[in-house]
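Final report, Chapter 2: Outcomes

The project's central promise was a pipeline that accepts a single protein chain and returns its three-dimensional structure in a standardized token representation, suitable for archiving and comparison. That pipeline is now operational. To close this chapter, we reproduce one record exactly as it appears in the project archive, with the input sequence first and the structure output second.
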Amino acid sequence: MPDYQDILVTAPDSGVITITLNRPEARNALCNNLLREIAETLDSTINDDNIKAVVITGGEHVFAAGADIKEMAELDAVGVMNDIRPSYWRRIAQYPKPIIAAVNGFALGGGCELMMHCDIVIAGDNAQFGQPEINLGIIPGAGGTQRLLRTVGKSMAMQLVLSGEFINAEQARDFGLVSEITIPEMSYNRALKLAKNIARKPPLAVRLAKESLLKAYETTLETGLNLERKSFTLLAATEDRNEGIAAFMEKRRPDFRGK
């Protein structure tokens, strides 16, 4: 992996890489360069068959406390219109392999939005979530209003966005924003264990399952069901499907090869 400035990237371990946000002096504020490095890392692994899942973390103390306000303050309306950041967010959102977030401490503003770009969220019990952009006279700009509404529902989304208040890990789990809570020291280990488990599954099935689940946000039930059925049918032609069935019947561990 390249030697990045604002993130740390581990070598593949059992099919999983870890991206660690690495701006501790700024509580991992999401500057342009950090987002660019995440997007470039994900882009570089799309066609790498050795990498089957990704974990994103900020460490035990903070995930990301928001966007880089100093960079934001330098942009006028034209600068915001021409901002490169939406292209980075788009590349993260379109990444086809599973991304699991291990979240401790603050996940606020852009940090909460980055977390919501991930597919599964494991939170430490010290985690706090929120979209406090309203306190700066702005609104979330990387999908916060849209993803929150689809995840936690209208009332809680309105409360978070309009008040700028935070919620804790238990509240986030109750509203479906995170899937599990651990002690902070174990959130990364749990996320890594889950990622390695997913990495052992048939890659084509994982990819199509993720696509089908995400499309449910954007389409009608009928359209989603049609996509699911097409993906189900497509997988019937794969070697991994035959291997999975054979292994089940023969009571052995399957050997999935992504074919």
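Archive annotation: The chain has a mean pLDDT of 91.
This record, like all others produced under the grant, will remain available to the consortium after the project formally closes.
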